[in-house]
């Protein structure tokens, strides 16, 4: 399994491409991109995935890159073309030792994780965020 997982790619307002990555930092999950760099607990990532994720439909293969996390959890990036979509979309799949896998659109989950990282950074360094 890779040590770094690409969570999402997007085009910024100025036309630049941005990518957000996750990696393991001890017992925490490191979220990093051009604007957000910080660590979240595995529990925080789980709460986001439980909030936004839905059970993975039967018959969808768990393939694609995955990041093994402490506690037996795994975060996987999955490209899937659902019958209702015009083209394939990227999903993040949360594999947990005590439940069925949950899937959510990668862009939505990544935005929530980035928000948490930015919010924690602002709380830890309030003077810098006000400047």
Query: What number of domains?
Result: 1
SS class? alpha+beta
Compute the CA-based radius of gyration.
15 Å
Arrangement of strands in the largest sheet: 5-9-8-7-6
Fraction of residues in helices? 25-40%
Described by strand count, sense and barrel closure, the largest sheet is: 5 strands, antiparallel
Q: Can you tell me about this structure?
A:
With 131 residues, the protein is of the alpha+beta class. It has one domain. The chain has helices at residues 42-52, 106-124, 126-130; strands at residues 4-11, 17-25, 28-32, 37-41, 54-55, 66-69, 73-80, 89-96, 99-105. The strands form 2 sheets. The chain has a 5-stranded antiparallel beta sheet with strand order 5-9-8-7-6. The protein has a 4-stranded antiparallel beta sheet with strand order 1-2-3-4. The longest helix has 19 residues, at 106-124. The model has no long low-confidence stretch (mean pLDDT 87).
Topology diagram in text:
Elements: E1 4-11, E2 17-25, E3 28-32, E4 37-41, H1 42-52, E5 54-55, E6 66-69, E7 73-80, E8 89-96, E9 99-105, H2 106-124, H3 126-130
Antiparallel strand pairs: 1-2, 2-3, 3-4, 5-9, 6-7, 7-8, 8-9
Could you name the key traits of this structure?
four-stranded antiparallel beta sheet, 9 strands, alpha+beta, five-stranded antiparallel beta sheet
């Amino acid at each position: 399994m890779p040590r770094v997982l690409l969570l999402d790619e997007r085009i910024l307002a100025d036309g630049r491409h941005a990518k957000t990555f996750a990696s393991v930092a001890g017992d925490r999950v490191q979220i990093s991109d051009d604007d957000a760099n910080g660590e979240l607990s595995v529990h925080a990532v789980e709460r986001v995935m439980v909030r936004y994720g839905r059970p993975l439909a039967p018959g969808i293969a768990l393939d694609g890159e995955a990041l093994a996390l402490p506690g037996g959890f795994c975060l996987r990036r999955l490209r899937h073309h659902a019958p209702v979509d015009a083209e394939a979309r990227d999903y993040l799949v949360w594999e947990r030792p005590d439940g069925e896998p949950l899937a959510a659109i990668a862009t939505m989950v990544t935005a929530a994780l980035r928000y948490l990282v930015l919010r924690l950074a602002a709380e830890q360094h309030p003077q810098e965020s006000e400047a």
